[in-house]
Specification:
By secondary structure, the protein is mainly α. The protein has five helices and no strands. Bound molecules: fe (ii) ion (FE2) (2 copies).
């Protein structure tokens, strides 16, 4: 795969991330956790924005844009802790892909892609931080409904 084919794949993977977060939103909504649902819906929007950002960059650089079928995963989870653990695992996978892409961008003749990807290195630190925090909170809550509803209310106030 050439650098820009990989870059294009990241555009698809960001959209696939949105699809995966949709399955998580659906899972928590089924259990009436509106705050968790709101959190994942915003997460979906964010990933769609990331995908568009990659697409716009490809177009700006005169590169082709190719969409592929997306895999949402099986959408099966074993409780709220499992959902957020899988979200964290997913973000770690995204981080490793972004790092690889960044490394490869250093061999490109112009610096545009490198500068662009730097933003996403920062973004991934934030994403991993967010999900690590929630996983820790859920581990401490340990299935207690009072704690779960408090976290549900807190995540329901996520603004962006
Ligand atoms: Fe993303
Ligand atoms: Fe993300």
């Amino acid at each position: 795969m050439t650098f820009f084919e990989k870059f294009n794949e990241q555009m698809n993977f960001e959209l696939e991330s949105a699809f995966i977060y949709r399955t998580m939103a659906a899972y928590v909504a089924e259990q009436d956790m509106d705050g968790f649902e709101h959190f994942f819906n915003l997460q979906v929007q964010e990933e769609v924005m990331h995908s568009d950002d990659f697409k716009n960059t490809l177009q700006r650089l005169g590169q082709p844009v190719k969409y592929r079928p997306l895999d949402p995963g099986n959408g099966e989870f074993e409780g709220f802790l499992d959902v957020f653990k899988k979200a964290l695992e997913h973000e770690k996978l995204v981080s490793s892909k972004i790092k690889e892409l960044y490394e490869e961008s250093l061999n490109q003749p112009e610096r545009y892609a490198t500068v662009f990807l730097q933003k996403y290195l920062d973004e991934q630190v934030e994403e991993e931080e967010t999900f690590t925090k929630i996983v820790t909170q859920l581990e401490r809550i340990n299935g207690n409904w009072t704690g779960l509803y408090q976290l549900n209310a807190l995540l329901g106030r996520r603004a962006e």
